[in-house]
Amino acid sequence: MTGPTRHLRSGISGAILYALAAAGLILSQHAMVALAFRALGAPLAIDDHFWLFPMRQLAMLPDISPLVAVGGFAFCLAISAALVRLSLRRAERLDRGFALALTTMVPTLQIVAALALVLLWPRRADAMPERVGDPAPPHQLAIGVLAGMALIVAAVAVSALTMGAYGWGLFVATPFLVGLITGFIVNYGHGRSAAETLSAVAAAGMLGTMALLMLALEGLMCVIVILPLAAGLAIIGGVIGRAAAKRFVDPARPFYGVALLPLVFLLDAAMPPELPIATHASTVIDAPAAIVWDSLTADRPVAEPPGLVGTAGLAYPVASRLAGEGAGAYRHGVFSTGTAEERITVWRPARTLAFRVVRQPPAMEEMSPYRKLKTPHLTGYFDTGETRFDLAPLAGGRTRLTVRADHVLRIDPVLYWGPIARWAIGQNVGRVLTTYAEMPSAAP
Q1: Number of C-beta neighbours around residue 24 at 10 A
Q2: Domains by residue range for the chain, with CATH
């Protein structure tokens, strides 16, 4: 048998074996979801979304147990790890495609990456580049990236989904440990440059983020908002991990922090912060107080565009509607994410209108491949208390309209999230004041 013929047969047989094994691993996720639906007695829609996003159906089940959800995510992570290992072997035989092998970590994208690896052809021995020295094995880089990605997904699944904890463990300790562990693994025994190390840390973060999106654990906007803090901490961790690997530190020591993470999550869940945010703003309207009151209590939309708040997916007021008059009556505040039920607490015509939120809609709407996410932080971690409008008559038939709004933020670190929350509240309050000031009925 000639060399080219042997090379052709070897390439075809390798592609077929890899395709069968990769297909079996990928389809096992669909089988897991189908079995979970059968065990729960729920109907399963076998459609395009099921084949592309097998975790979608499981994540969207109403009142799904956190243990079932976490078990499903853990199964998908195990499949991703097995698929990466299989794909790295394929890439080593091809002497190419290592980036594709890493991409098989991510659900949904793993379908495209595995297909590309099937179609790739192995390099001929005489075409392979000459290797100099003892380079770091590619699989070591993949293991480091996979470890960082797995830690991201596991931390979100345990802290957010299971414990409902959004705090120091998730937003500070986790990104630092991702950088530390990835930096340590990719450098241990085979030193890499700082640029290569940080590239591996970035790859772990990027693939971990994509996995969160595909597993319906988080939305894109939350990831973007936390990115500056997480990226900085991951870089610091990567630098420290690289330095520790160069000094041949005990390989177990960088992983001690991971063992402590659940304890930090428990502390975050047991002692959530309570940051009160009081907002105060006012505007002068060229109209008497009685006309401003009529505008304030009318069923009118908030005409001002939401701006960056709307782009970020944060909830913003759309309209309001009164259901009755006087203290004790209800007011319906329509937001971009749903309707808030509000009870009137103070009703003084042409002087004061105050109301307290009884039931509020989600704080934001996530950007995701899924129609709707049920991540815990959308409700209960940012609450609105009382909102109060005071009207003060001024000379010349004008009126000063003042709004005071109370909110509570329950996400750590408050030094990071607090300014973001205050900015969003200020933008929404400004829109409301501008809308009332520009109402046609407010003209003298």
Answers
A1: 14
A2: 3-122+136-270 (no CATH), 275-442 (3.30.530.20)
